Amino acid sequence: MDKRLLAPLLLIPLSLPALAGTPPSFDCAKAHGSAEQLICQDAALAALDNELAALYPKAIANFTPEQAKTEKAIQRGWIKGRNECWKDADPGKCIESSYQTRITELQIKGGQLMVPSPVIYQCGKGLTFTAYFYNDGKLPAATINLGPDLQVLAYGVPTGSGARYEGQNLTLFTKGKEARLERYGEPALTCQQSGKGSNE
């Protein structure tokens, strides 16, 4: 092949939106801030944006008006948080993670995933909790029910052994039938499966 034909191609920036594939769900000509501009220049981030845009109306379709109103406020807060990724050391990775966690959250909240069998854990004599492990979402995730009014959504984090799920003020480590529950301001608890269901 004539190398002279390749030379002009090498001068074209590969990050141009025209070369990035399908544009995101918003108008890149009106992109606000460096986070949205980065999404317009990155095909993978634009694909995540489109995935979320398609999922959102489906996820809230069966919500009550009050639930939908709350979720819309959460979505606005999420967009604000995503746009703050420009401050991160790796803005692209931050934006990617932001989309993946939000998509997973909506998949679970909106009933887009089959509800797994509950796994019951007994932590000594002081605490029993139930966990639902979602392995088919955008990210591995678990909903952890610590009481009638306390449910935490935790996301899977890669680990060398077993599994680790991180949520707000909570980390759950699982390995086989054992688990370790860490909560902010509370002593860590060692727990054992004590009911039907499995996260394997």
Question: What structural class should be given to the helix and strand makeup?
Answer: alpha+beta
Look at the structure and give the mean pLDDT: 87
| Main sheet attributes: strand count, strand direction, barrel closure | 8 strands, antiparallel, barrel
Sequence of strands across the biggest β-sheet: 1-2-3-4-5-6-7-8
Query: Helical percent range?
Result: 25-40%
Q: How many beta-strand elements?
A: 8
Given the structure, what is the number of helices? 5
Terminal residue distance:
53 Å
Question: Beta-sheet strand percentage?
Answer: 25-35%
Radius of gyration of CA atoms, rounded to a whole number: 21 Å
Low-confidence stretches: 1-20
Series of H and E elements: HHHHHEEEEEEEE
Tally of separate domains: 2
Oligomer type: single chain
Given the C-alpha coordinates, what overall shape results? globular
Structure in words:
Helices cover 36% and strands 25% of the residues. The chain has 200 residues and is of the alpha+beta class. The protein has two domains: 13-109, no CATH class; 119-193, Lipocalin. It has an eight-stranded antiparallel beta barrel. Strand 2 and strand 3 (141-147) form a beta hairpin. Helix 2 (33-41) packs across helix 3 (43-60), helix 3 (43-60) runs parallel beside helix 5 (91-109) and helix 4 (65-83) packs antiparallel against helix 5. It is globular. It starts with a helix and ends in a 7-residue tail after the last strand.
